[in-house]
């Protein structure tokens, strides 16, 4: 019998080379395979098989032989011989039912063969089909020697497999949908062939289970709702009972019912039940009653209908009362329920305030459970936001001290975030600011600027910016200043805006902070920030103001000025002078460009135009020292404007205008243009006006100097010194033009002979706050950055429109433009 299996040609019962003699005499043979390279048969197994009359079949790698008669012995082979490719198992089976069932893969291989049944031709008459031989060397490996670790099946295993395969599809579906109906220990075999592809029954199993559970839940839901509806009237009576034991049992029963959604809805739909629970909390001193009742209210607070029911039943005062409980679970239920009310129920904030909730919540800040503290601080933020009275109550309860302690003591991100939000709200309160700064709030907030949580860093920066105008005299901020300089490199607009504003405020009239910022590379970082910001005035304004502070009135100021020049900062700042620029920004930029320190504007867009003129003309005065610059100034035909400024009521404006004219007169062309304007006459009139309220000796000396100057020859001017000989007699040699504006009082506070300039709506600022540094609101020692709308990047303020404007910004007409910049809850 010849047959093909796995592209190999086999012969059973024929004459192999090694056993030809035996086969001819005994009329039995072996299984041989054809060797295409050597053109000969090779023996595979030495099992004696009858030569004639047998039937051969193969399934996958198994060869099955049955029947047959030997020529010599006339012996029939009554049993079935099974030979597999692993050549390990040889079994004797009494009938077809005993044969081992091949796997699905083996069956697939079998049915893919062109001829899967072969015999000697006696029984079926079928002829085997000879395959093509490739002759590859690797095909010499015996198919029967591929796996030496194959284990055969026992009779019991074969019986078990047969039983499993006889299971019907309906049984498998039943096992997938209703496994609980099967007897314990019975497993239904899967027909899955590829682990990556589920069978149809397996795909049906999960959705069918979901559907079954949904139906079961629906049935149970209705049962729970019916049970609760019938039980609620009785439970209300029990909750109102005089016996506290009965009340306690009823409260616990209601709490158990509230854990199921259906009965929970039934409870919240009963105002009488909610009111009974609130009364139980208010009147009972029993711990179990309180726990059951407040636990039920906590469950109800997760639904809007439940929140409304609690609010209408007067539950907030009862819950606030529980904030004094020493029991942890009661505290948790109470604060969580109040938190849900504050978040989602209108009117809850006022009710909590009226019930004294703020004071009790501040007292809870002394606890050490971080998750509990996170809920408490979030409640405080909700209550304090936009409510000045709440901020003052928190201050009176020592809230800032506890909040700063939390920021310094814990590292739980959610707690730090919620606490920083409370501090941010409090930091816009003029009463809370000093308290937070005094408690070490600046240093505590600075500890978290390197935190990986972006929302925490942003809240800390907003709070620091709000506090910075009250911390201009605080020492020990070196690490904060260094962190701020590093933060300037951030790509987040809000972060950079805050960092620049904080640096601007902290360097106001604080020489130590100025030196520190310069030493850590703050000047370079600020110039890069201005370049990167482009036309974002919310960034460029505080950055330029910070540069203005760093380039004047401290030991490192000259180094800072050089750093600005070396980093091409002057060119960048000059470009920013072009419209559209708001006047506070123009004022700061002219100050940096000229290198002079001037008095800051006290209000945001309420900057006085006289200060803009003074700073701009002062910058031109410094630039006019160079002959090239003088030629450019003359070409602009501005000498008549300088002459008109000599008649201004502000003494400093008169001074800077005279200074520019003095420098321009150093050239013949300039002198001629000035002469054409009759400046000598105007100057004389100005000088006489300046001497109106001066002593008689001053008037006499001024008259003599004026007379001499009018008849003085042109060669008496000393261009190197930068001023006339007459002015040298008035100012000491070391004052010259570099110090003319820094030493004198600011323009609006001049009282040296001219008419003191007063403008309604602006307070007087002490002379020690001069130099265009950021001063305080109303004459205090602080920063006017608490009143600059441009720094608020939220975009809510209608004034924050940075769109291109064709015209120069209109000078402020309303003296009451004091919209708070920092003093806004962000």
TrEMBL record:
GO MF terms here are: cadherin binding
Q: Sorted alphabetically, which SUPFAM superfamilies does this protein's record hold?
A: ARM repeat, Kelch motif
Q: Where does this one sit in the cell?
A: Cell membrane
Q: Which GO terms describe its cellular component?
A: plasma membrane
* Keywords assigned by UniProt, alphabetized: Cell adhesion, Developmental protein, Segmentation polarity protein, Wnt signaling pathway
- List GO BP terms, alphabetically: cell adhesion; segment polarity determination; Wnt signaling pathway
Which Pfam family name is an example for this entry? Arm
Q: What's the superkingdom here?
A: Eukaryota
Please report the residue spans annotated as repeat (ARM): 230-270, 272-315, 314-356, 356-398, 398-441, 479-521, 521-563, 637-679
What is the protein name given in its UniProt record? Armadillo segment polarity protein
Organism field: Rhamnusium bicolor
Taxonomic lineage is: Eukaryota, Metazoa, Ecdysozoa, Arthropoda, Hexapoda
